[in-house]
Design goal:
By secondary structure, this protein is α/β, with parallel strands linked by helices. About 45% of the residues lie in helices and about 10% in strands. It has 13 helices and six strands. The chain has helices spanning about 1-5, 15-20, 25-40, 50-55, 70-85, 85-90, 95-110, 130, 135-150, 160-175, 185-200, 235-240, 255-265; strands at about 60-65, 155-160, 180, 205-210, 225-230, 245-255. It has a six-stranded parallel sheet with strand order 1-6-5-2-4-3, with helices on both faces. Helix 12 (about 235-240) links the parallel strand 5 (about 225-230) and strand 6. The chain starts with a helix and ends in a 7-residue tail after the last helix.
Length: about 270
């Protein structure tokens, strides 16, 4: 980019690498080089907010929806905490062990069926237990039924593709028309799904997306509701879905790791 903007100064990449070699052990020197790069790039960077560029867009409303856990989730959550109580209290365990515990707690908050053996295989695969055994799904079920009745179009984001698998089973059970995009979706299939969702009088009610796949040039301007099923550590990932829709709903289990994560997420303003 700098070669295009100021070719007289940055004639080739070899020269740039020589001037700004960050493969050094001196942290102070590395920070100085990064700061110098920022100064060089700043005159060429322009940041504008959506409200400054397109004043006709409706204001965005963000709502945090709190819900409790199911009995199954509470038991799993307690078992995870008690199994690794020494690591949590700091008497043993590494940072990696703590992060693994956090991930397990987030999975429990998302849906207990993410754990092997949690689902009762004697029950119908598309039965009400998909909803009843997860507090968030109970909330989501009520919300989607109401949104469907009033004619809204929905985007639902989640980080875990396995949760998308469970969502698909739920949508089939409720007979809601949907599309799905995740990291494994090919470009052609993705474009076909987007066109099908944005088509006039489309029957597609909800679009399922993984948070990371959802930011790759996707335009779903016909939706008016975004549901964040779980929040990302990086708030910028969550912001991907907040470009055009009018209402954003964030699903959170009370007294869970997700509640703690949300309080540290600038998306909520906390």
């Amino acid at each position: 980019m700098l070669n295009f903007l100021v070719p007289d100064v940055f004639a080739n990449s070899e020269q740039f690498d020589e001037w700004f070699n960050l493969d050094i052990d001196d942290d102070a020197e590395k920070n100085r080089l990064i700061s110098q790069l920022h100064k060089i790039l700043r005159p060429f960077m322009l940041r504008r907010l959506k409200k400054e560029v397109e004043k006709s867009l409706l204001p965005k409303h963000e709502t945090i929806l709190y819900t409790g856990m199911s009995a199954m989730q509470k038991k799993l959550y307690r078992d995870i905490l008690m199994r690794d109580i020494d690591s949590i209290q700091g008497t043993s365990g590494s940072r990696t062990a703590i992060l693994n515990i956090v991930m397990q707690l987030r999975k429990c908050s998302g849906h207990p069926y993410l754990f092997p053996g949690a689902e009762d295989r004697t029950l119908p695969p598309l039965g009400e237990h998909l909803v009843e055994n997860c507090g968030k799904m109970v909330l989501l079920d009520k919300l989607l039924i109401r949104l469907k009745e009033r004619g809204s179009r929905v985007l639902l984001f989640t980080q875990m593709t396995r949760i998308l698998d469970i969502m698909e089973d739920y949508l089939v059970m409720r007979r809601f028309k949907y599309c799905r995009i995740d990291g494994n979706t090919t470009y052609d299939v993705r474009e076909n799904y987007i066109d099908a969702y944005n088509a006039p009088n489309s029957e597609k009610f909800i679009f399922l997306l993984s948070t990371r796949a959802g930011g790759l040039g996707i335009n779903l301007q016909t939706a008016d509701i975004v549901i964040l099923y779980d929040s990302d550590w990086n708030p910028q990932v969550s912001r991907v879905s907040l470009c055009v829709c009018v209402c954003v709903c964030v699903c959170v289990c009370v007294w869970s790791i997700q509640g703690l994560l949300l309080r540290g997420n600038p998306l909520t303003g906390n």
